Amino acid sequence: MGRTRIRDIRHEELISATITAVHKRGYAVVTMAEIAAEAGASAASINYYFGSKEKLMEATMRRLLTLLKQAMLERYATAKSPHERLMAVIDANFSDRLFTNEQCSIWIQFWANAPYAESLQRLHRINRSRVTAHFRAELRALVAEDRRETLREALQCYMDGVWLEAAQSDTPLNPAQARKEAREVADLMLVSQD
Amino acid sequence: MGRTRIRDIRHEELISATITAVHKRGYAVVTMAEIAAEAGASAASINYYFGSKEKLMEATMRRLLTLLKQAMLERYATAKSPHERLMAVIDANFSDRLFTNEQCSIWIQFWANAPYAESLQRLHRINRSRVTAHFRAELRALVAEDRRETLREALQCYMDGVWLEAAQSDTPLNPAQARKEAREVADLMLVSQD
DNA sequence: AATTTTTAAATGGTCATTTAAAAAAATGAC
DNA sequence: GTCATTTTTTTAAATGACCATTTAAAAATT
């Protein structure tokens, strides 16, 4: 058992601290010392556990992707129809756990820096592909082929845009409201199809 | 006449160089020396003309906002109906002059850094307010009141999302195609209204 | 000759990463 | 259980870069 216990705990702590510190200070300027302070550790220990600042950022982004994937699978489990499953993908993106100021903020930070760091770009693409695949699968049963891709693109861009706007907000977000609006928008687009 | 001629030329050149350099290297890591090299000048001359790196970034962002405003006004001039004016706002955002890899890229860079720099945040808010106001004004004649804000939000988020995605692309963008799709999306949402 | 523009070099500061040593935890023989 | 030994974890301090900004002087323009 607990062979790697401390190692795991420190990974958790330092990734958490990274999320908080990047949100507070911005990816562009946050320092190892600031992240370490946030976790009550020293900058040197980050390198002991992660090897470099870049690898820490990569691990942090990977954590965010895992959270989103989990939220998506959770909701998929109980959804029965294509329409319900489409809404499950939407709900996952705006779930209480994910749609917070801190996470929207850091998500955008990674997003903006993805084009300049191979490792971030890879992760970013994997994530987008997954969401695209889910949308395509469910829209197949809901929308005529000639409009399907337009609608999928529109929905995905809309969701990205909501996150982008949320990242600028300095008042607490309202995930339930965001889900409701996103469902309305999706239905608005689907209506003209039946 | 030409009293401030050279000054104006240098401002132009250095802002252009900033756009290119930030696109190439990222806001997070671009240096004064790189920007200067892009313009065939020295880092010291940037400080001579702009005072500091931060002020250069602010001036560059201001230039981008001016371009967008101009594109919007140009198209507004020939639009006659609310629907045409709505499309004018959309077209402006995806005009040939603005919807390029370089500009989408730098726009996202500024966007991501706005929460951490007072001067950028101010400019960013001014811009969003302007777009919001235009949309509200035109949608008033096109959409019932109870759905108006949802639709406006959706459209704005969609457009932001398209820019965000464009910034990740490494193949040349297609502004005409983007305009066509955006119009389709807008009409799709308007259809369910009449 | 006076003013504006330009830059090489100096300055001062910041930061990621490494190093070397200390502290803490685990191991295991008794 | 205890204590010496080995391994893991932690950090203070050193290192070596890098960079924005300033300075002082030269070059260009008026």
Entry keywords:
transcription (chains A, B); homodimer; 194 residues; Arc Repressor Mutant, subunit A; DNA-binding; mainly alpha; DNA-bd_HTH_TetR-type_CS (chains A, B); elongated; transcription regulation (chains A, B)
What this model shows, in words?
The structure is a homodimer of 194-residue chains. With 194 residues, chain A is mainly alpha-helical. Chain A has two domains: 1-51, Homeodomain-like (Arc Repressor Mutant, subunit A, Orthogonal Bundle); 60-191, Tetracycline Repressor, domain 2 (Orthogonal Bundle). Helix content of chain A is 78%, strand content 0%. Chain A has nine helices and no strands. In chain A, helix 4 (53-78) runs parallel beside helix 7, helix 6 crosses helix 8 (145-168) and helix 8 (145-168) packs antiparallel against helix 9. The first copy, chain A, is elongated, with a radius of gyration of 19 Å. The model of chain A has no long low-confidence stretch (mean pLDDT 94). The A-B interface holds A 25-29, 105, 108-109, 111-116, 121, 124, 147, 150-151, 153-154, 156-162, 164-165, 167-168, 170, 181, 184-185, 188-189, 191-192 and B 25-29, 105, 108-109, 111-116, 121, 124, 147, 150-151, 153-154, 156-162, 164-165, 167-168, 170, 181, 184-185, 188-189, 191-192. Chains A, B: Pfam families: TetR_C_6 (PF13977), TetR_N (PF00440). Chains A, B: Pathway: Amine and polyamine biosynthesis; betaine biosynthesis via choline pathway [regulation]. Chains A, B: Residues 8-68 form the HTH tetR-type domain. Chains A, B: Keywords: DNA-binding, Repressor, Transcription, Transcription regulation. Chains A, B: Residues 31-50 bind DNA.
